[in-house]
Design brief:
Strand content: 15-25%
Structural class: alpha+beta
Largest sheet: 4 strands, antiparallel
Shape: globular
CATH architecture: 2-Layer Sandwich
Radius of gyration: 14 Å
Order of helices and strands: EHEEHHE
CATH class: Alpha Beta
CATH superfamily: Uncharacterised protein PF12112 family, DUF3579
Strand order of the largest sheet: 2-3-1-4
CATH topology: Alpha-Beta Plaits
Helix content: 25-40%
Distance between the termini: 25 Å
Number of helices: 3
Number of domains: 1
Length: about 100
C-alpha cells in the first residue's frame, strides 16, 4: 500500500453538519475568518490587517453561511491550511472541494 499526501485544493466549509444541523454560533464565519486574517500576500498596505485574508473569506452558498478557502493559503502557511481542514473535520461540517 502506497501512502500519498492529500491534494491541496480550494474548498468551502458549509455551516451545516453532516447530519444537516446548522453550526453554531451564528457568527462562526466571522470568527474563523478573523483568526485567519493575518495570512495574506505581502504588500497589502498599512490597513491590510483590518480586513479578511483574500484566501479565507466568509460567504453564503445556497443560503448557508460558509467560509471559502483558497488553496494558495497553503503556500503562505501550511499549518493554517491544515487548521482549516481540521476545523471542518472536528466540527463535523460539510465541505465542498473545488475542482482543480
Amino acid at each position: 500500500m502506497t501512502s500519498s499526501s492529500p491534494q491541496v485544493r480550494s474548498f468551502v466549509i458549509l455551516g451545516v453538519t453532516s447530519e444537516g444541523r446548522p453550526f453554531r454560533p451564528s457568527d462562526w464565519t466571522d470568527r474563523l475568518c478573523g483568526v485567519m486574517s493575518a495570512f495574506r500576500p505581502a504588500g497589502g498596505g498599512p490597513q491590510a490587517h483590518l480586513t479578511y485574508s483574500p484566501y479565507v473569506m466568509p460567504g453564503v452558498r445556497d443560503g448557508v453561511k460558509c467560509v471559502i478557502v483558497d488553496k494558495r493559503i497553503h503556500a503562505i502557511e501550511m499549518m493554517a491550511y491544515h487548521f482549516l481542514v481540521g476545523f471542518a473535520r472536528d466540527n463535523d461540517l460539510q465541505v465542498v472541494y473545488e475542482d482543480s
